[in-house]
């Protein structure tokens, strides 16, 4: 047996050095993946508000007598509504024309769609999350408010009305 050549020892040392560098890079990437995964998993998508669907109708903001249109002390109009298989509650919303109306809506069971005909009001209602958006209704009259996300056998019967008042 001959003694290893000097250049072989240099090559082995270089390979070991690169193996350590690669291992460190992979380790760093894994730490980044785990950190960002845990970070984002700990908060809802888009940091929207969450709500316990089991408490809808029963307690908190979405109790029965808090649903529908409300005018706050500051004059701002808020509509709260719940979607469920296969209806909206309330079935008919009454809103004023020409002022911004803030909607706060959620679902008790499946994912529903919320849409007000001929407006830009269009949002998904996901159980556990409160969808919030603001819409202004320019014209007085009645609009249909269908569920536009397939939510089960009664989907096509799921719709309500919006009455825009002067
Ligand atoms: Cu609710 Cu489709």
Describe this protein's structure.
The chain is α+β, with helices and mostly antiparallel strands and 166 residues long. The model has no long low-confidence stretch (mean pLDDT 91). Helix content is 22%, strand content 36%. Strand 7 and strand 8 form a beta hairpin. It has one helix at residues 6-41, and strands spanning 49-50, 68-71, 77-84, 87-89, 92-96, 100-107, 112-115, 122-125, 129-136, 141-146, 159-165. The relative contact order is 0.14. Strands 1, 2, 3, 4, 6 and 9 form a 6-stranded mixed beta sheet that branches. The protein has a 3-stranded mixed beta sheet with strand order 5-11-10, with no helix packed on it. It has 2 domains: 1-42; 50-165, Cupredoxins -  blue copper proteins (Immunoglobulin-like, Sandwich), CATH 2.60.40. The termini are far apart. The protein is elongated and about 100 Å long. Dinuclear copper ion binds next to loops.
Element string (H = helix, E = strand) = HEEEEEEEEEEE
Beta-strand content: 35-45%
Low-confidence stretches: none
Q: Which molecules are bound besides the chains?
A: dinuclear copper ion
Shape: elongated
CATH topology of the largest domain: Immunoglobulin-like
Integer-rounded radius of gyration: 28 Å
CATH superfamily of the largest domain: Cupredoxins -  blue copper proteins
- The whole-number mean of residue pLDDT values reads 91
Question: Whole-Å distance between the termini?
Answer: 101 Å
